[in-house]
Design goal:
Blueprint: H1 15-32, H2 36-42, H3 48-55, H4 74-83, H5 90-102, H6 105-110, H7 113-124, E1 130-133, E2 149-153, E3 156-167, E4 174-180, E5 189-195, E6 201-206, E7 217-228, E8 232-233, H8 239-275, E9 277-278, E10 281-282, H9 287-315, H10 321-346, H11 356-364, H12 374-385
Parallel strand pairs: 1-4
Antiparallel strand pairs: 2-3, 3-7, 4-5, 5-8, 6-7, 9-10
Length: about 375
């Protein structure tokens, strides 16, 4: 399993962080990891997992205690995100992080007490499943190009359009939804809290993916769905800016899980190399294998240090756009490199579905795409670095 010994000398982490790590790690080992193959095959993990996460106070780590959260800082989120890799299911980890760190932080930050009571508190308590609805068939990284509309009619918005690649989309109770309330461009975008029991909403397709199989991903449609005006989140026409700010947290937890996942599978592969025999000795007896392993360890450590530096900036109030983009870019690339090399070091077994490394290889591929592609990260960096 993923070792936490390497974190003992970091001054950011103390006894309470260790307790949280142990809580998450024990849950993963006892209740989640043993079900990994079954839930992947079923293409869905049980809804009960959200409630189990809530019972361990994992869905509102940085949320105020008054809303049911823990009121802690980003270093505790780091512990949560890193230890979740012990479940061996990147899809499950992603689904929980959508709930805790992608679809709900913006509700806390710009929502009012009604939004908090109606949507945020149930999500933190694991009573409601949240989704983030931004991507459309013709608008991925280009958020300003979304076409889903919300037109004001009296005391309601009437929503029409479609979204795709929506994590938790087949069973979400509500969606933090990007809509167009105004004209073209980024100034016409708003955020709307959308309850999925609204008439006219439907899941048009559950999508089959390359990896992250246990997490549901949906294509969804809105046909004359009426939503009360009070469901508007923040100010009309400012949704683009809210979304861009929200991307920071999404990308940072994505980078953290990429590096933690890479570390876990490298640890697994290192143990494999100690016992796998070839030409009369174990793989660790070959210099080329040892050198590959320590090279990957070095690159993972560099990614971890970059993430920790970025978290330190965020905790001190810095938006850290530059560093977050670097984290997302570098950690995604390293994660994929590590997964690829670990499959190779496993040989034929690495290509077998029963071998965890093959699942990590498939799952890790999403990191350089979701939440902003590596190409978009590079473009962001050209604007702040050059």
């Amino acid at each position: 399993m993923f070792s936490t010994d390497r974190y003992r000398n970091y001054p950011q982490f103390g006894e309470e962080h260790d307790q949280l790590r142990k809580l998450v790690r024990d849950w993963c080992r006892k209740d989640l990891h043993p079900n990994a193959h079954a839930w992947e095959a079923e293409r869905l993990f049980p809804r009960e997992v959200f409630r189990q996460a809530a019972q361990r106070n994992l869905l509102g780590i940085r949320m105020p205690e008054s809303l049911g959260g823990l009121g802690l800082d980003w270093w505790y989120t780091v512990c949560y995100a890193e230890e979740m890799v012990n479940c061996g299911l990147a899809g499950l980890t992603m689904a929980l992080l959508v709930q805790s760190d992608m679809a709900t932080p913006v509700i806390h930050e710009i929502g009012d007490s009604w939004h908090h009571d109606t949507y945020l508190k149930p999500a933190i308590a694991g009573q409601a499943i949240a989704a983030l609805g931004i991507t459309e068939p013709d608008a991925g990284s280009d958020v300003a190009a979304i076409k889903t509309t919300a037109r004001r009619q009296g005391d309601d918005y009437v929503v029409n359009g479609a979204k795709t690649f929506i994590t938790n989309g087949t069973r979400a109770d509500f969606i933090t939804l990007a809509v167009r309330t105004g004209g073209a461009g980024h100034e016409g975008v708003s955020l709307l809290m959308f309850p999925t029991d609204a008439k006219g909403f439907r899941v048009t397709r559950k999508l089959e993916k390359m990896g992250n199989h246990c997490s549901d991903t949906a294509e969804i449609a809105f046909e004359d769905c009426r939503v009360p005006v009070r469901n508007l989140l923040g100010n009309e026409g400012e949704g683009f800016y809210y979304i861009m700010a929200n991307f920071g947290g999404e990308r940072l937890v994505g980078a953290l899980t990429a590096i933690a996942g890479a570390q876990r599978i490298l640890d697994v592969t290192t143990e494999w190399c100690k016992t796998r025999m070839a030409f009369g000795k174990n793989l660790m007896g070959f210099q080329t294998v040892r050198h590959q392993l320590v090279q990957l360890e070095t690159e993972i450590e560099a990614g971890r240090q970059l993430c920790y530096r970025t978290v330190d900036l965020v905790v001190r109030g810095d938006a850290a756009w530059r560093e977050i983009a670097m984290c997302k870019l570098y950690c995604g690339e390293v994660g994929n490199k590590v997964a690829d090399r670990c499959v190779q070091l496993h040989g034929g077994m690495g290509y077998m579905d029963e071998c965890e490394v093959s699942r990590v290889f498939r799952d890790m591929r999403l990191i350089t795409i979701g939440g902003g592609t590596s190409e978009i990260m590079r473009e962001i960096l050209t604007k702040v670095c050059l």
